[in-house]
Amino acid sequence: MSDAVSPLAQPFPAIPPIAGVTLRVARAGYKDCGRCDLTYVELAEGTAVAGVFTRNVCCSSEVELGRANVAQGRARALVVNAGNSNAFTGYRGREAVDAIMAQVAAHLGCATEQVFVSSTGVIGVPLPKDKAEAGVRAALVTEPCDWEEAANTIGTTDTFAKGALATAIVDSRKVTLGAIIKGSGMIAPDMATMLGYVFTDCAVAPVFLQELLSAANTRTFSCITVDSDTSTSDTVLAFATGKAGNAVLTGFDSPGADAFAAALNDVCMQLAHLVVRDGEGAQKFIAVQVTGAVSDKSARTVGLAVANSPLVKTAIAGEDANWGRVVMAVGKAGEPADRDKLSIGFGGAWAARDGLPLADYDEAPVAAHLKGREVEIQVDLGLGEGRATVWTCDLTHGYISINADYRS
Amino acid sequence: MSDAVSPLAQPFPAIPPIAGVTLRVARAGYKDCGRCDLTYVELAEGTAVAGVFTRNVCCSSEVELGRANVAQGRARALVVNAGNSNAFTGYRGREAVDAIMAQVAAHLGCATEQVFVSSTGVIGVPLPKDKAEAGVRAALVTEPCDWEEAANTIGTTDTFAKGALATAIVDSRKVTLGAIIKGSGMIAPDMATMLGYVFTDCAVAPVFLQELLSAANTRTFSCITVDSDTSTSDTVLAFATGKAGNAVLTGFDSPGADAFAAALNDVCMQLAHLVVRDGEGAQKFIAVQVTGAVSDKSARTVGLAVANSPLVKTAIAGEDANWGRVVMAVGKAGEPADRDKLSIGFGGAWAARDGLPLADYDEAPVAAHLKGREVEIQVDLGLGEGRATVWTCDLTHGYISINADYRS
To answer: Which residues of B touch A318 (CB under 8 A)?
Structure first.
């Protein structure tokens, strides 16, 4: 964890223990910083698992194996290595992951494909098998820890521990969702990696859990961006232990499925926002709200074009209501847009409507809005009912300093 | 023009007069800086014209009209306004362009569609008709100027005048191509606009000139990027006066067509590189050379993903041979790539081959290469014969300062 905490940081929530989930951390020594860097989560028998993974084709063995093994639907353990992403390490990287899976499976007496492994940190250096083996061995026998300690242990250059909590009533039983995530802090030569984990005691069938997680992902993790660079290791896994005792959710017809879906979406949104709040050099949290697009998908593409535009992000950093740059970004998105129907606003006040600057535009409330930590950009395309919100942070000298000023 | 010249600047070439082309500059007063800001180029009767334009759907009236009027193939004049892009200004912006075209057409006794207008600068403010009218009137009667003065006059936040020269033997006659361009300097609230103009005395049929310009554009202007933000005004026009007296080039069967095509490609490449060399905050000129892709188009997409990656660009700024970030950028491009066949190098020395870091990797020559002003990144995908080179600059504190630190 970094010393300088993001000005957008939020306190870690009071996540209670979740039945069927036991957290432990240990020190494998991937880095020389003296802190714990291996997280081991033991899951009750019968825990359902679902996952979404990076689309980066140069992904790590962890991602390849996770994607393959999530298909069988059950998980007994999760191991997260921090300090080494094990990406682009060929067969030696693969061997290290296989060894961890075998070691944990032997301990638990489960199938190896029920052991999930994630790694985050430097790329191109095979995960050292001996350190991993010793780290796992230590983790298996240490005392359980709390959520915040686990959140700190999966972090690399994150500036604060990130967690989320939600509850829902399912089948007359209260179910709890606890979640942790790391990501968006990067220092050379590390890469951005976002690793997120959602744990719940709710009983959910794996196929339905996957359906819900994929849907939540589309509206949350897939709608954030810090710098448009897609990690080779991004992973979000959801684990449902079933210990709440509700009748297993198998589809939206199951009692309480809507409530659980809403709670799952809620924790995913919290996690996604926390990653943006720890974006490198971030000084402002930006919501780009797109309406009037021909479809929701089109709205999201336009929103990402605005959120990824260096010129828009630097304008917000400079507290400059430069709506011309927003127009430019909308226009380059490649989606249907009509210059003469386009409206742009900040914090709810329009600067341009229907393709023309507002004649009576009052910059004072907009200027005041841009001075805050939370900035909203409104884009109305005037074409249809499609809408999406995308979240990002501003682009500041801090980003350059973190990524250019320090040598590997 | 800015005071601080880019460290990557190049001297303006000695472009001779080109028969059929007369350059004049005047002061319209779009900005209060006291320098000339209107360029007027008169072209001989029968001059062929071709053009390529921004794909930004929020483009200016100048771009819309230019795209429409280039179809009739002939040009008598070009007017370039610097200091106001006239983009996102609705019918009032359109009226200003119509007025300029009518004024010049009346003076020359030509059709209005043979008058081409470009504007660059602040967005959202209609081009003032009265200033434009007075500026054009002054330009029509002033003494002709040289290429460098014209190049300076079309510039806005450019830090140096940019021109290119090439010659070719066509049909036993020497033909000359002279070209100027502006772009990639931006200060809030201005937008990046790239305006480029190629003039030649070669006789070329408009349809063939368009074919050649479009082909050159694909390999030159479409292969550069400073910050991935596509302007609403980008325009490149080619004018061929025919005064060299060669038999008109109508296709690749015409004698000398290949030589002319090569010369046209040459000046377009020179111009494109000059824009990158004046990229905001640029300290290094970067060539991303992609080979082994499934197609040339795929190679270009991969190259642009690398060249637009903030993490790659900041690594180069920090003189850090961070090939992991290049792997990440290749992987996110969405093009066919196989992690285990991928090779990454800098300045001709491989850092990783076939998906593995080089065991005997010697960082010393790579580190020396990265300390220079010109940096090469090699990406071999190991899949096919597709290749492309993309050019960009590094991402530095200078970029943030230019775009965030100053208010509009």
So the answer is: 188, 403-407
Q: Tell me the pLDDT of chain B averaged across its residues.
A: 87
| CATH (residue range B21-277) | 3.60.70.12
Domains B21-277 and B285-405 share a fold: no
**Residue boundaries of the structural domains of chain B:** 21-277, 285-405
Query: A380: closest CA among A287, A263, A302?
Result: A302
- Residues of B assigned a catalytic role: 193
Record the pTM: 0.79
Question: Which tokens sit at A225?
Answer: 């961006």
Handedness of CA B140, B144, B145, B151 (dihedral sign): positive
Q: What is the pLDDT of residues A312-341, one digit of tens each?
A: 999 999 999 888 889 888 987 889 888 889
Give the chain B residue nearest A54 (alpha carbons): B332
pLDDT-above-70 percentage for chain B: 94
Nearest CA in chain B to A329: B229
Per-residue pLDDT at A266 exceeds 50: yes
**Is B397's CB within 8 Å of A395's CB?**
no
CA angle A201, A203, A205 (to 5 degrees): 135
Query: Which positions of A are catalytic?
Result: 193
DSSP string, B171-193: TTEEEEEEEEEE-S---TTB---
pLDDT digits (tens, 9 = 90+) for A101-151: 999 999 999 999 999 999 988 778 889 999 999 999 999 999 999 999 999
CA distance B91 to chain A (A): 9
User: Cβ contact (<8 Å) for A395 and B408?
Assistant: no
The Cα B270–Cα B262 span in angstroms is 12
Interface confidence, given as ipTM, is 0.76
The verdict on a CB contact (< 8 Å) between B308 and A228 is yes
Per-residue pLDDT tens digits for A348-407? 999 989 988 888 888 899 999 999 999 999 999 999 999 999 989 998 888 888 778 654
Find the closest chain B residue to A228 by CA distance.
B309
Residue A179 CA to residue A343 CA, distance in Å, equals 38
Q: Which CATH class is domain A285-405?
A: alpha beta
Q: How far is residue B85 from each of residues A41, A200, A274, B383, measured CA to CA in Å?
A: 58, 55, 39, 43
